[in-house]
Amino acid sequence: MSENAISNVVIGAAIEVHKVLGPGLLESAYKECLYYKLFKSGLNVVKEKAMPLMFEEVILECGYRIDLLVENKVVIEVKSVEALNDIHLAQTLTYMKLGDYKLGLLVNLTL
Fold this sequence. Notes:
Layout: H1 3-21, H2 27-40, E1 45-50, E2 53-55, E3 58-60, E4 65-70, E5 74-79, H3 86-99, E6 103-108
Helix pairs in contact: 1-2
């Protein structure tokens, strides 16, 4: 399945989660429900995937964790904030760079 096809499923699932739960919950609640919807749809989904940082010849565990990684191709960063800002985008782009992923979705489920 291509990254674009995966993103269509993810966006549809995120919309369904938001319709059911509505705004105002914690990020962790939205993430768990989105994980469940994606898993239930038959996709391979990993929660809280650790992303080590390679520096010179050393692999460093710096605490980077992808919220959801779908089919080992698409990074999903879930937020529950009033407004997204540059740091949220930078976080998603960092995960994409560290894992050499082509597509990342920054999903805000509060609005």
